[in-house]
Design brief:
The complex is a heterodimer of chains A (about 325) and B (about 325). Chain A is of the alpha/beta class and about 325 residues long. Chain A has helices spanning about 1-15, 20-40, 60-75, 90-105, 120-125, 170-195, 200-205, 215-220, 230-240, 310-315, and strands at about 45-55, 80-85, 90, 110-120, 130-135, 140, 145-150, 210, 225, 245-250, 280, 285, 290-295, 300-305. In chain A, strands 1, 2, 4, 5, 6, 8, 9 and 10 form an eight-stranded mixed β-sheet that branches. Chain A has a four-stranded antiparallel β-sheet with strand order 3-13-7-14. In chain A, helix 3 links the parallel strand 1 (about 45-55) and strand 2. In chain A, helix 3 (about 60-75) packs parallel to helix 4 (about 90-105). Chain A is elongated and about 115 Å long. Chain B is rod-shaped. Chain B is built from seven helices and 14 strands. With about 325 residues, chain B is α/β, with parallel strands linked by helices. In chain B, the strands form three sheets. Chain B has a nine-stranded mixed β-sheet, sandwiched between helices. A three-stranded antiparallel β-sheet of chain B has the order 6-11-12, with no helix packed on it. Helix content of chain B is about 25%, strand content about 20%. The chains are: A alpha/beta (about 325), B alpha/beta (about 325). At the A-B interface, helix 4, helix 6 and helix 10 of A face loops of B.
Chain lengths: ~325, ~325
């Protein structure tokens, strides 16, 4: 018995000392590590995140987009962002919030915009800090301006208030001054980020015209003609990625508000579909509101505008010439 | 190896492992969570000019010592509210003048021209603001005769005057106003343009709140440095252009830049391109109060012949008196 064990021990010792055994064990270890090494050497250099902006800009849609932008900044695997934009703008504060988030992101990584159909007013506010803005020939960009809308406010002589402006919030002059100050911030932002490319003066911008893609490339509101694929490639180039993945960040389940742009209201859904507060509709309470929007909102009455292109607004009941 | 030594080895291995991970974490530490700030210069209050509205002053004017009767026409669907004319009515009344409204008859009015002429025969001045209905030829002839006889007339209308303005406005454009207003202004040598004026370079608090300055020396512009109009419409007269907009003012329809006349005079009639300049909201902006005082003085210092206008004739003659630049006020 003991001799059998001794023989077995000697045999195992010989096997352990054999080169063949060493090679086999080494192959097994190497094979187990190979996928990791393969992954390290052959996977993409990084990731380009595509964030879709396809609705009017409300506090609700702005929150979703700013969350995506924050995720892009905090996720080490994301190296560049492409904003895929189709929006006529929306609330002034929502647009400003998106601008701040976009610029914060652009300070950390390349941000490239692809304008699908429209990047007007507040939507252009947001994309102004992009490193590159691509448009299609038929895209619409521009409408750099702000307007204050006014929904029926009860006159103070029908109730007791503690001040003459408790209901209205101020006089028409004061609203005009407020939209003027918002215009200055908006135009200042556009010239800050696009000043080197723009051929339009601040005054010309303030007309709040919209331009086609071709026009916007010529006047500097956009950089070049291109689609989202081009924008992704440029973003990757600017991030120094030879090989990259593309991820589409989570999109909002609901589409944006239904807005009537230059046409009749028809049977469109109510403008309060997603976040009516942006348009001054807080349930049973309506308030004046400030919009950086190209297009009109059902029931809107414009009290002051910084821009000239008001025919659409007048369509829905503007009482000024 | 004893149990004790094995336990020591176990604890030592655990400690070394935990310490190693801790040191690795410190070495590879990636910094703090971001604490963003908003440093954009264009968002700072110091970078934004808050527009201010220059308000102050009151309407002062001198009459000729007589109490005059000023008629305000509200019989032509005039788009005028109490607030629009309150400063005018108050200033006239406070100086002892009589303000009379010419209203449309509640019953069927077979002879509106006769009623208007009857009113004008007892009046010294007429104010017509934003008429929404066309004047008949007989009514226009009566107003023209009134002005020719020394009666003072103030026309004031903006770009959306005219009976169909609202409907056309809904279709996205400004309505032609002079189609309605011209029926009464044209016979006295005044024409209103369509569209409104704006200035993208120099404005008060909005591109439509624009300045106008005197273009000629006149008693009507005496003491006026600049006035503020809210999207006025251009006016032309066969007499004198009194106030023009600043260079660079543009027309909403033609988009042409230039200096546009917004207050003009033809004989005993003056035309203003913005009725809002005399409203409660605007009368004391810039020098609007000075201009309004001059206008009121003009209205109450006429010397109208008695008995004019006469009963309307059946002759329909509303041809504009273009080319007639003769002053209609004796001694002027």
């Amino acid at each position: 018995m003991s001799s059998t064990l001794a023989t077995l021990r000697n045999l195992l010792g010989a096997v352990a000392k054999s080169y063949v055994t060493v090679v086999i064990v080494a192959l097994l270890v190497g094979a187990s590590m190979a996928p990791v090494v393969w992954g390290m050497t052959s996977s993409p250099d990084g990731t380009v995140a595509v964030i879709e902006v396809d609705s009017s800009l409300t506090e609700s849609s702005a929150e979703r987009i700013t969350d995506d932008l924050r995720e892009a900044r905090q996720n080490d695997s994301i190296d560049a962002v492409v904003l895929e934009v189709d929006s006529p703008g929306g609330g002034v504060s929502a647009s400003e919030e998106l601008y701040l988030a976009a610029e914060r992101t652009a300070e950390e990584m390349p941000v490239v915009t692809s304008v699908e159909s429209t990047a007007a007013s507040g939507a252009y506010y947001m994309i102004a800090p992009s490193d590159e803005i691509y448009v299609k020939p038929g895209s619409i960009v521009g409408s750099i301006g702000v307007r204050a809308t006014y929904l029926d406010v009860p006159p103070t002589d029908q109730e007791i208030t503690t001040g003459p402006d408790k209901n209205g919030g101020g006089t028409e002059d004061e609203y005009e001054a407020q939209v003027e100050m918002m215009r200055q911030a908006f135009v200042g932002t556009v010239t800050e980020h696009r000043g080197d490319e723009l051929t339009l003066s601040e005054t010309e911008l303030s007309y709040a015209k919209v331009y086609t893609g071709v026009e916007s490339v010529e006047n500097g509101l956009a950089d070049d003609v291109g689609d989202t694929e081009v924008a992704i490639g440029t973003a990757a180039d600017e991030a120094g990625l030879e090989d990259y993945d593309v991820v589409e960040m989570e999109s909002e389940p609901l589409s944006g508000l239904s807005l009537t742009i230059g046409g009749e209201s028809g049977d469109r859904p109510d403008a309060s579909a997603v976040h009516p507060q942006t348009f001054g509709q807080y349930g049973a309470v309506n308030t004046p509101t400030f919009l950086a929007l190209w297009g009109s909102v059902d029931g809107e009455r414009v009290v002051a505008a910084t821009e000239l292109e008001r025919s659409v607004a007048n369509e829905t009941g503007g009482d000024r010439p | 190896m004893s149990v004790r030594s094995r336990f020591v080895v176990f604890v030592a291995v655990v400690l070394v492992t935990v310490a190693g991970v801790g040191v690795a974490g410190l070495v590879t530490e990636q910094g703090a969570t971001e604490r963003p700030t908003v440093d954009q210069q264009q968002f700072q209050p110091s970078a934004i000019d808050a527009p201010t509205v220059d308000r102050g002053g009151s309407i002062t004017y001198d009459g000729d010592g007589e109490s005059k009767t000023v008629v305000i026409d509200v019989a032509h669907s005039n788009d005028v509210s109490e607030e629009d004319l309150e400063p005018v009515v108050s200033a006239l009344t406070a100086s002892g003048h009589t303000v009379q409204y010419h209203e449309s008859s509640e019953d069927f009015d077979s002879e509106p021209a006769a009623r208007l002429n009857e009113t004008l025969r007892g009046a010294d001045a007429l104010i017509v603001v934003e008429p929404g209905a066309r004047y008949s030829a007989e009514e226009a002839a009566g107003v023209s005769a009134f002005a020719d006889a020394g009666g003072r007339v103030l026309f004031a209308a903006g770009p959306d005057s005219g009976g169909v303005g609202g409907l056309l406005g809904l279709l996205g454009g400004s309505a032609p106003s002079d189609g309605e207003f011209a029926s009464v202004t044209s016979p006295v040598g005044i024409a209103y343009d369509t569209g409104y004026l704006y200035n993208m370079e120099e404005y008060e608090d909005n591109f439509q709140s624009i300045y106008a300055t005197p273009s000629s020396d006149s008693e009507l512009t005496d003491g006026v440095d600049r006035v503020v109009f809210d999207s006025p419409t251009p006016v032309v007269a066969d007499g004198q252009t009194l106030l023009t907009t600043l260079e660079g003012t543009e027309h909403s329809e033609t988009r042409e830049a230039g200096e546009y006349g917004v207050v003009a005079r033809s004989g005993n009639a003056i035309a203003v391109g913005d009725p809002g300049f005399m409203s409660s909201q605007n009368y004391n902006r810039a020098d609007n109060d000075v201009l309004l005082g001059n206008v009121l003085e003009f209205l109450v210092t006429g010397e109208k012949e008695a008995g004019v206008p006469e009963e309307p004739s059946t002759e329909r003659d509303t041809a504009p008196q273009s080319g007639s630049s003769e002053p209609r006020v004796p001694g002027e």
